[in-house]
Amino acid sequence: MSYVSEFTKFMNDWLTQHPEQQQERRDGRALWWDKPQDPALQQEPLASRVAQKPYPYQVD
Predict the structure, then answer these.
(1) What is the per-residue pLDDT across 18-49, written as a single tens digit (0 to 9) for each?
(2) Torsion angle of alpha carbons 6, 12, 13, 18, nearest 10°?
(3) What is the C-alpha to C-alpha distance for residues 34 and 27, in angstroms, rounded to an integer?
(4) What segment(s) does the record annotate as region Disordered (predicted)?
């Protein structure tokens, strides 16, 4: 038998007693994390980067 922490035991028991929370957890995750990604929007920060000099304090 592998180790299971007290918190994991508590959460497993609590979720067994409150099955409606599973759907609320999925809804909350969808609200904050599972968003469709736009590849063009992700490329904007990369396109706006400015090349850095090898030694930034060198006077040209």
Answers:
(1) 999 999 999 999 888 888 888 888 898 888 88
(2) 140
(3) 10
(4) 15-60
